[in-house]
# Entry
Amino acid sequence: MTQKIFAICDTEEPYALRLMEYMLEKIRLPYALHLFTQADRLEEFVSRKKIEVLLIAESAWKLLKEEYIRQQAAQIFILREGDGQREEQDKPQGDNMHFIDKFQSPDKIVEALTETIAEVPGWIYGSVTENAAMKLIGIYSPVKRCLQTTFALTLGQILAREKKTLYINFENYSGFGQMLKRDFPMDMADLMYYYRCAKEKLSLRLTSIIQNINGLDYIPPVQSQAGVREATGSQWLELCHYISGIGQYEYIILDLDDGMDGLFDLLRCCFRIYTITRDDSFAVAKLNQYEQILKFNELDEIMDKTVRCSFPAFREVPVDLELMTHGEMAGYVKAIVKEDLYGK
# Structure
């Protein structure tokens, strides 16, 4: 079957190249991506082939034979170059015509594009191939306030320097929004919803859901566990593999919590598990009880893959989530990455 075509057209060549490179990196599209920096080349191309999606600068659109192009392109996105105050009656009309402001960050353009495409009836998304190279890393400790999330984010940001890495936080109350001083339009509950109810749209929705901090991709944690309370360990595992197939992640870091279903199911499937310990009597008692439960349930494989991490009293821990690769904690984590994960 002939592969369908996604075309970008902008006479501003450096802009067009940057946008195409960003899209190739961020969106998994089952279509051939074509770039045009001359409007007449696009016209010549559509005389021979139809286009599924056309993303075109407003100035380039004005150089084309509008009606002919509209017949040859199923969905058209015009990158507006004005101030956005153009009268509605002056805009090209039609169900397949969409408008996006050109002069904004590429992620905003891609987000607007994918949000619209995801709702187009009959859009074919293609299959997601399994990523056999992906490794799950579990971070879990029954001891609370032990720097588990600090450790997980530090590990993720260090790994992300060399490997494509995704971080997922399963805490009931992560505080991510407040720490980053931002609101998330979608979070992990939305991700699970699309996986359960509209899997064919997930490859596009994922672009809007995933955020990035200091090179590390992450999925915003849920605001309320009500949205994912019924999700089982096997469903979380399936979702991780599906996301890995879309994003081709080499590592997915799971920052796990007691309040979730299927904790042990996920730990069993991890390549490595890091459990943070402390020396006080309550911490020791909790860890002993946790290990007794593992033995009782014949989950020795979890213990075999577990690395206990004990930290000194750090003088200072970064408060800024984007600075986790600096400081004393980072030194410990870099040693773990070098020796335990990379085997150097």
The two ends are 47 Å apart (CA to CA). Residues 281-296 form the longest helix (16 residues). The chain is about 40% helix and 20% strand.
